[in-house]
Amino acid sequence: MSKPTIGFVGLGAMGFGMATHLVHEGYTVHGFDVFPASVQRFQAAGGRPASSLRESAEGKSFYVCMVASAPQVQSVLFGDEGIVQYLPQNATLLLCSTVPASYAQSVAAELQSRGRGDILFIDSPVSGGAKRAADGTLSIMAGGTDKALESGRDLLQTMSAPSKLYLVPGGIGAGSNMKMVHQVLAAIHILGASEAMGLAAQLGLDARQAADNIIGSDAWTWMHENRFPRMVEEDWNPGASALTIILKDAGIITSSARQHRFPTPLCTTAEQIYLSALLQGYGTKDDSAMWTKRSQN
Q1: 86 lies in some domain
Q2: Ramachandran area for residue 21 (φ above 0: left; ψ -120 to 50: alpha; else beta)
Q3: Is 290 within 8 Å of 193 (Cβ atoms)?
Q4: What is the pLDDT along the chain (297 residues), one digit of tens a residue?
Q5: Which residues form the 3-hydroxyisobutyrate dehydrogenase-like NAD-binding domain (predicted)?
Q6: Domain count across the chain
Q7: What is the DSSP letter of 3?
Q8: 133 and 191: one domain?
Q9: By C-alpha distance, which of 209, 223, 202, 231 is closest to 295?
Q10: Which of 49, 187, 254, 275 is most buried (CB neighbours < 10 A)?
Q11: For residue 27, what is the DSSP state?
Q12: Global pTM value
C-alpha cells in the first residue's frame, strides 16, 4: 500500500527532524516554513518544498503542524492564508506543537464553527529533542476522537519510539495536559542538573567524573544525561533547545495550574529563574547554559 502525501509546517530544529524522518520512511512530504533557508534545507534533505501554506495543504489528506506557539498555530490554521480552508474533506490534522490544552480545545471548536468539523483533529504534542525527532523515536502524547486517533495512528507511530506513543483518554486537550505534566519535571530537572554541575565545579570536582557518577546512580535523570554533553562542551549557540522554549512551557504550566487552583511552587520558581535568564540575554542560548548562570549566582 502506498503511503499518503503529507503537508508539514514548521521546519525548525524539531520539525525539520520530524519531517525528514518521514521522508526517509518513504512518505512524500511537502514542507513549509516562514524562513526560506529552512525550506531549502528541507529540499536538500529530500523533502518537497512548498512556497506557501496553501501549497503545503492543498490535496494533503494528512497534515502536521509543528510551529512554536499557540499564536503561530492560530495564524497557520485560521489566518488569511490558513491551511484549514485548503485541506481536503476528512483530512487528518496533527497539532504537534506544545500549546495549552484550552487552546487545543478552542481549535476543535473553531473547526466546527467554520464548517470544517470533517477534519480529524489530533492534539499530539511531542517530546524528545531534535535527535530523537530525526530518529523517529519521539515521545508523543495524543488526544482526540477514536476515529481521529485511528486515522493518525500510523503516522504518529512512525514519528515515535515503539513504546513512546501514548493515546491519552479524554479527547482533545488530554494530550496537551499530559505534555504539561511531563514538562513540570523537565523544567525542574534542567535546573536541577544545572545546579548540581555548578556546585560540582565550585567544589573543584571533575565535571565529567561527577556527571558519570550521577548518571550511573539512582539520582539519574534524563535531562541530566541529555544536557550534560552540551554543558561541558559549552555548545549553546544556536541552542538545540532554546531557553525560550522551556520558559514558554513553564508559563503554560503555571497558568493552567492557577486556572485549576493547584499550587506549583517548584515549577513557578523554575519559571522565574528562566525569566531572569531571559532578561540577562540567555533566551536564544541552549537551556544547558543555565549551569553557568547557576554557578555564577
Answers
A1: yes
A2: alpha
A3: no
A4: 789 999 999 999 899 999 999 999 999 999 999 999 999 999 999 999 999 999 999 999 999 999 999 999 999 999 999 999 999 999 999 999 999 999 999 999 999 999 999 999 999 999 998 999 999 999 999 999 999 999 999 999 999 999 999 999 999 999 999 999 999 999 999 999 999 999 998 999 998 999 999 999 999 999 999 999 989 888 888 777 899 999 999 999 999 999 999 999 999 999 999 999 999 999 999 999 988 765 555
A5: 173-290
A6: 2
A7: P
A8: no
A9: 202
A10: 187
A11: -
A12: 0.94
Residues in the chain: 297
Q: What is the CATH number of the domain that holds 258?
A: 1.10.1040.10
Alpha carbon distance 55, 53 (integer Å): 5
Beta-ladder partners of 93: 63, 121
Question: Which residues lie closer than 8 Å to 157 by C-beta, 6 or more apart?
Answer: 165
Residue 285 covered by a domain: no
Q: What is the CATH number of the domain that holds 34?
A: 3.40.50.720
Name the phi and psi angles at 155, rounded to 5: -65, -45
Q: Residue 294 domain-assigned?
A: no
For residues 183 and 43, membership in a common domain is answered with no
Which residues are annotated as catalytic?
179
* Boundaries of domain holding 157: 5-172
Q: What angle do CA 65, 81, 84 make, to 5 degrees?
A: 50
Same domain, 246 and 190: yes
Closest among 152, 132, 134 to 143, alpha carbons compared: 152
